[in-house]
Amino acid sequence: MYSSEISGFYKLSVKERLSLIQEKSGLNQEELSVLKNFGYFKPEEMDLLIENVVGSYQLPYSIACNFKINNRDYLIPMVIEEPSVVAAASNVARMARKMGGFHSESIDQVMIGQIQIVDIENINEAVEKIKANKERIIQRANDQDPILIKLGGGVVDLEIRTIETIKGPMIVIHLLVNVLDAMGANAVNTMAEAVAPYLEELSNGQVFLRIISNLATHRIAKCRAVFDKEMLGGSDIVEGILYAYAFAKADPYRATTHNKGIMNGIIALTLATGNDTRAIEAGAHAYAALGGYSPLSKFDIDEHGNLIGELELPLALGIIGGLTKTHPLARISLKILGIDTAEELAQVAVALGLCQNVAALRALASEGIQAGHMKLHKRKEMKRKSI
């Protein structure tokens, strides 16, 4: 059994790391050649992204078709390994077109930066001092990013919260930052760290955490669509979808899987555009749990018996910064989408999430999820044998 204790592994070149891993784990030449295949990256490029790189992990890159969102057509890139997801989304998107497609609302691009203040002698006095100096705090934060301010972004407001914890009372300051077309973590964290010493001075307390919140309740994406009952499979299927929704609304065990179906689409697009999948996933499930864990979507029928679907969740997606500009496929994804703003990307993502949700519920209300999965598995297996 080898030892995982390796000193200075990060200092080695990719080639040296690969050699060491081969030696320790007994990789054969075929396995080693898989690791050496970096695809459209050069090893040194991948090595700049994160530490201890030894390879590049590849997933299928697909296009979902038939989407009409806010009266505009989109081809949507998706990175996902689960069979039937892309096909199902494309199929249900075609159904939504008959009734006008998806309608996504406008979205504020405001993120929350949290500053935690503890060991405060007089909470009420500290809160009043912070309130009295609100504009100074905002100015100090905005001084950190003159380019963001010049473009029309920056801190737009400040919220003061007091909370009771197992470590005693705390003041939590929320910087509300318009991050424009970025996800916003770097700008928000920099601002939060910059105002921390001043907040300590005002509160006579101590600051520990100064970090963005991934529960982006000021950056909520909303979408609505009507799905033709006959194209869905008839009134019985619509009724089955409504029963499935009722089940999810009453039971968190079902609601979790219900929301997973939504995130199948949203995370696939998030990954394809180089955005932070963990932040999006965490924010979505936290939002679902605000009043007790429940489905992110809701369903009803119109006067003709057609299915009405609505979806609402926080979506902190960016089109600048991070992997969105350094990853070649992320850049290509944005070009395929033909979008110009982070807001538009979120509008597409929430529509895709609603579509994916309807596709999953339709399958559950008819043949079942596994039948669709196995059908595609069998088709792919036959193709593999013929190659």
Overall description:
The structure is a single chain. This protein is of the alpha+beta class. Helices cover 50% and strands 21% of the residues. The chain has helices spanning 14-25, 29-36, 43-49, 85-97, 123-132, 134-142, 146-150, 185-203, 229-232, 235-250, 252-272, 277-288, 323-326, 328-337, 342-365, 369-386; strands at 61-69, 72-79, 102-104, 110-118, 154-165, 168-178, 206-213, 220-227, 297-301, 307-314. The strands form three sheets. It has a four-stranded antiparallel sheet with strand order 3-8-10-9. The longest helix has 24 residues, at 342-365. The mean pLDDT is 94.
Q: Which radius of gyration do the C-alpha atoms yield?
A: 24 Å
Query: From N to C, what is the helix and strand string?
Result: HHHEEHEEHHHEEHEEHHHHEEHHHH
Helix-and-strand structural type: alpha+beta
Q: How much helix is in the residues?
A: 40-55%
- Helices, by number, come to 16
CATH class of the largest domain: Alpha Beta
Whole-number total of structural domains: 3
Looking at the overall shape, the CATH architecture of the largest domain is Alpha-Beta Complex
Distance between the termini: 38 Å
| Mean residue pLDDT | 94
Beta-strand share of residues: 15-25%
* Contiguous runs where pLDDT drops below 50 for at least 5 residues: none
CATH topology of the largest domain: 3-hydroxy-3-methylglutaryl-coenzyme A Reductase, Chain A, domain 2
Shape: globular
- Note the main sheet: 4 strands, antiparallel
The CATH superfamily of the largest domain turns out to be 3-hydroxy-3-methylglutaryl-coenzyme A Reductase, Chain A, domain 2
Major beta sheet, strand line-up: 3-8-10-9
Number of DSSP E strands: 10
